[in-house]
Specification:
By secondary structure, this protein is α+β, with helices and mostly antiparallel strands. The chain has a single domain (7-108), classed as 2-Layer Sandwich (Alpha-Beta Plaits), CATH 3.30.70.120. 30% of the residues lie in helices and 36% in strands. A hairpin with a 2-residue loop joins strand 2 (38-50) and strand 3. Helix 1 (20-32) packs across helix 2 (71-81). The chain starts with 9 loop residues before the first strand and ends in a 5-residue tail after the last helix.
């Protein structure tokens, strides 16, 4: 699982939130439902276009470790709990990862999806 074979089954999902409280609430819900194995939450200084002008704000980012087949459920849960009308939610397939980490993600996320 450390090389390209098998790694495409795993994703890192990145999302931003309006506050640390919101990020924590979303992360806890995803963890409780075993949609993610881990959620890293951190402050972000964001700059972006919104309604025709450049905005800036302090947000909180999340990096979520999960399996590819759970992405749609992860995205749906984030959207259901998110305060933004257009939440930033993107994912990257893992090209490589340590065997023990990937096995842990597999074990800690919901099976049968």
């Amino acid at each position: 699982m450390t090389g390209p074979r098998g790694c495409g089954r795993f994703l890192l999902v990145y999302a931003t939130t309006a506050s640390e409280v919101e990020a924590a609430r979303i992360a806890e819900a995803l963890l409780r439902e075993r949609l993610v194995a881990c959620a890293n939450v951190f402050p972000v200084a964001s700059r972006y276009w919104w309604k025709g002008k450049i905005e800036k704000s302090r947000e909180y980012g999340m990096i979520l470790k999960t399996r590819k087949e759970l992405y749609r459920k992860v995205e749906a849960k984030i959207k259901a709990l998110h305060s933004y009308s257009v939440p930033a939610i993107v994912a990257w397939e893992l090209a490589a990862g340590s065997r023990t980490l990937l096995e842990w993600i597999q074990q800690e996320t919901r099976a049968g999806d």
